[in-house]
Automatic annotation (TrEMBL):
Originating organism: Streptomyces sulfonofaciens
Designated name of the protein: 2-hydroxyhepta-2,4-diene-1,7-dioate isomerase
Keyword ATP-binding assigned: no
Rv2993c-like N-terminal domain sequence ranges: 1-60
Molecular function (Gene Ontology), one example: isomerase activity
Fumarylacetoacetase-like C-terminal domain segment(s): 65-262
Length: 266
């Protein structure tokens, strides 16, 4: 099931996406069956349906935190001249960095080198801590597309990545959460990124150094994850620059396409 969060006539709700289109831009024929309540508990479909073309898609979740893992693809680590970490390498993006499909990525005024990073995002479905490997599937709600937008020059200049990867609009998520992918399938999906229609990144989640299980076990040893929290699993090789006016799209097999436009203000 594809679960979207959307607004219509000033109201915000969750809905189940019905139809054959896989991309947010292919709204024709897609409808939303409005969910009663929130999707992280037992829920019912209301039977009230609205065309996807009539709503604004929002970030599919509002995480209390986004836990991201860096250098989790060997070729990506190499392209930036970094060593491959022996253990998962985590950092955070604040909740205020999250935007949805169709929202603008605002080029930060303190950077001159903005990069895209296409990633598979894991959405957590229940409160969890110290999750054993055999129970990881039980805490995963579903998967969505992410773009770990990075001010690369700032990342290189500053030892902490808070500004480089945590600025407002640096974490596009969407277009929805796909709950019908099991853990094994999620470990071998195509991840790609295009800028203005030209392919920049193309990889598979099977190329990850540390698996989804590794990442969830690692981070829950240290902290509690809450329903709606997001874990970013790293990016394949091919990261590159974004400029004012660019349209960047992240597509993940079986999920859909997350599209955003880059703008500069002032």
């Amino acid at each position: 099931m594809r679960i979207a969060r959307f607004s219509i006539d000033g109201n915000v709700a969750f809905g189940a996406v019905e139809g054959d289109g896989s991309q947010a831009g292919q709204a024709e024929g897609l409808v939303l069956d409005i969910i009663k309540g929130i999707p992280f508990t037992d829920f019912e479909l209301s039977g009230t349906k609205v065309p996807l073309s009539k709503v604004r898609l929002l970030p599919p979740v509002l995480p209390s935190k986004v836990v991201a893992f860096g250098r989790n693809y060997t070729e990506h680590a190499a392209e930036l001249g970094n060593a491959v970490p022996d253990v998962p390498f985590a950092f955070f993006k604040p909740s205020t960095s999250v935007v949805g499909t169709g929202d603008e990525i605002v080029y930060p005024s303190f950077s001159e080198e903005l990069h895209h990073e296409a990633e598979l995002a894991v959405v957590i479905g229940r409160m969890c801590r110290e999750v054993p490997r055999e129970r990881v599937a039980d805490v995963v709600f579903g998967y969505t597309c992410a773009n770990d937008v990075t001010a690369r020059d700032v990342q290189k200049r500053e030892k902490q990545w808070a500004r480089a990867k945590g600025f407002d609009s640096s974490c596009p998520l969407g277009p929805w959460v796909e709950t019908g992918i099991d853990l094994a399938a999620a470990g071998d999906l195509t991840v790609q990124c295009t800028v203005n229609g030209a392919q920049r990144q193309l990889g598979r989640t099977s190329e990850m150094i540390h698996s989804i299980e590794d990442l969830i076990v690692n981070i829950t040893q240290a902290m509690t994850l809450l329903p709606g929290d997001v874990v970013l699993t790293g990016t394949p090789a091919g990261v590159g620059p974004l400029s004012d006016g660019d349209e960047v799209a992240v597509t993940i097999e079986g999920i859909g396409t997350l599209t955003n436009k880059v703008i500069k203000r002032g």
